[in-house]
Write a structure and sequence with these properties.
By secondary structure, the protein is of the alpha/beta class. Helices cover 34% and strands 22% of the residues. It is built from 12 helices and 16 strands. A hairpin with a 6-residue loop joins β2 and β3.
């Protein structure tokens, strides 16, 4: 599985600013989602060619200081549990606080790389003041100024050096279908219904899942790994921040999947957390199937499904070419239709279009509807090819690629979908200099 680096600490030490600076260092696509649960942030970045997921655990004040400290402890414990390395951020301006000491007490007990980072160190005097953080008992520290990026290079060098090597073994290289969604949507029940046995523990308590587990599955003559963000959680842990935990699990499952089956609870709707998991999958360029579970619990008439589907598609614009299947795991309604649809989406994601077919199909359309002129200059697209990537990406070679704007790229994407069926799969369009 991919590496996760968690940024922990109390509020107002500059964690979010630091997070934003780190993900902006990535020259390729930056995947960052904010607001999934309160003010936490999730992103993917890389350093020295090594990719990892970055999580800013955030912080918030609820009522008294005691409640606040309990909330911080919950987030730190979750981050410690999930992360491969931990960045513990403190603030040189305020010095060591009681909450810093509480976090340090937790971190001293873990057997994972912990990087103590003193923020807001932007002059020599503050660099001298940072010495007091040795008192936290976490060894050497790194000084940074997240506002301008000072010191982050040395820190990131050390972080990526400490990250464990990713396990590249992929048994028989089978396709991976990840079942993702918010807690208590019916993910484990869905897999149990498919395989006909209680392979996973299923309860009515949201968040009983823990580790991503693969199950080999063969249907429709197609073998694949079915991945549930599932496992056993002790009852003592049920009170933890389950939404935060769910998204952390979803990140790992999504990053290593070919197709994501996004299960949502029809009685709760396509809410904010479900939407953010959807966009995580889209930004990672994964195939997506939306499964509306517990459809048997919804009062409905002959228009209800169409209205519900219309609402979902409105929320996922402009990527609306996504299959939506209404299921009831309890009654085993359309659960095999869901898998059949996922197999079709996988085939769409793996589809290769011959260069000659691409050009014969799309060039006449482009000639009839060329890109708009820009500053009196005309763009001429002369050649098209599919790039050798795991997901559909297409290069359109032209004389002035910089003048082709997003609306026309969406037009090209729509024509690709219209003629070659990429339902359920994000399609990337790139303009290249001919």
């Amino acid at each position: 599985m991919g590496n996760i680096v968690a940024i922990v600490g109390r509020p107002n030490v500059g964690k979010s600013t630091f997070f934003n600076r780190l993900i902006q260092r990535r020259e390729a696509i930056v995947d960052a989602v904010s607001g999934v649960t309160r003010d936490r942030h999730y992103g993917k970045t890389d350093w020295n060619g090594k990719e990892f997921s970055l999580i800013d655990t955030g912080g918030y004040v609820v009522g008294s200081d005691d409640i606040f400290e309990a909330e911080i402890d919950k987030q730190v414990e979750l981050a410690i549990d999930e992360a491969d390395a931990i960045i513990f951020m403190v603030d040189v301006e305020s010095g060591i606080t009681g909450m810093d000491e509480d976090v340090a007490n937790l971190l001293r007990k873990v057997d994972k790389p912990v990087f103590l980072v003193v923020n807001k160190v932007d002059n020599n005097k503050r660099a001298e003041d940072a010495v007091e953080f040795y008192a936290l008992g976490l060894g050497d520290y790194y000084t940074v100024a997240s506002i301008n990026g000072s010191g982050t290079g040395d820190l990131l060098d050390a972080v990526v050096e400490a990250l464990p090597e990713k396990d590249e073994e992929d048994e028989e290289a089978l396709p991976r279908f990840a079942v993702v969604g918010r807690p208590n949507a019916g993910k484990s029940s869905f897999i149990n219904a498919l395989i006909g046995e209680d392979r996973y523990i299923v309860t009515d308590i949201a968040g009983t899942t823990r580790d991503a587990i693969d199950t080999k599955y063969n249907r429709f003559g197609f073998e694949f790994n079915l991945v549930d963000t599932a496992g056993i959680r002790r009852k003592s842990k049920v009170k933890e921040d389950l939404e935060f935990y769910s998204v952390m699990r979803s990140i790992r499952a999504i990053e290593h999947a070919d197709v994501c089956l996004l299960v949502l609870d029809a009685t709760r709707g396509f809410d904010g957390q479900v939407q953010n998991i959807f966009w995580l999958a889209e930004r990672n360029r994964k195939g997506i199937v939306i499964l509306v579970n517990k459809w048997d619990l919804v009062e409905k008439d002959n228009k209800t499904a169409k209205e519900f589907e219309k609402y979902i598609r409105k929320q996922i614009e402009p990527f609306t070419d996504v299959p939506i299947v209404f299921i009831s795991v309890l009654n085993k309604q359309r659960i095999f239709k869901a898998i059949e649809t996922a197999v079709e989406v996988y085939k769409n994601r793996s589809k290769r279009i011959k260069t000659s077919v691409l050009n014969d199909t799309l060039l006449p359309i482009i000639e009839k509807y060329p890109p708009p002129a820009f500053k009196g200059k005309y763009v001429k697209i002369k050649y098209i090819m599919q790039l050798p990537t795991p997901q559909p990406q297409f290069a359109f070679f032209c004389n002035l690629p910089q003048y082709v704007k997003d609306p026309y790229k969406r037009f090209l994407e729509n024509k690709l979908r219209e003629h070659f069926d990429f339902t359920g799969v994000p399609v990337s369009v790139y303009m290249r200099k001919k």
